[in-house]
Write a structure and sequence with these properties.
alpha+beta; four-stranded antiparallel β-sheet; about 30% helix
Length: about 110
């Protein structure tokens, strides 16, 4: 009888854990299902360097095309690398850091 009780508890324990975890996860899944995933993105291209919004609209333009690469930093600043210089912009679109290549034949990369 003791072995039967132990077996019964052993079988019910995983079911209890599974049910409690399902109840904890389900509300989040329901809420997330109602919100469509959307985002803007940084574009470093030959004709445009800046940020494009969710709807395809231009949100931010660096004013200089042809970037090699760029990043939106964790603090919200934007760091962009062109072949001849690197610039960091703050939230007010002001250049707060710049670095230019030192020799005419050198080239900056990411």
């Amino acid at each position: 009888m003791h072995n039967l009780k132990t077996l019964f508890r052993f079988l019910l324990l995983p079911i209890g854990i599974m049910l409690s975890s399902m109840l904890a996860i389900e509300p989040n899944n329901i809420n997330n299902a109602k919100k469509p995933i959307s985002h803007s993105f940084f574009m470093a291209g030959p004709e445009f360097t800046g940020i494009i919004g969710e709807g395809g609209e231009e949100i931010w333009n660096s004013g200089k095309k042809g970037a090699r690469d760029g990043y939106v930093l964790p603090n919200g600043n934007i760091l962009i690398c062109w072949g001849d210089e690197v610039r960091e912009y703050n939230a007010n679109k002001e250049v707060i850091f710049t670095f230019k290549k030192s020799a005419p034949k050198n080239e900056l990369g990411t």
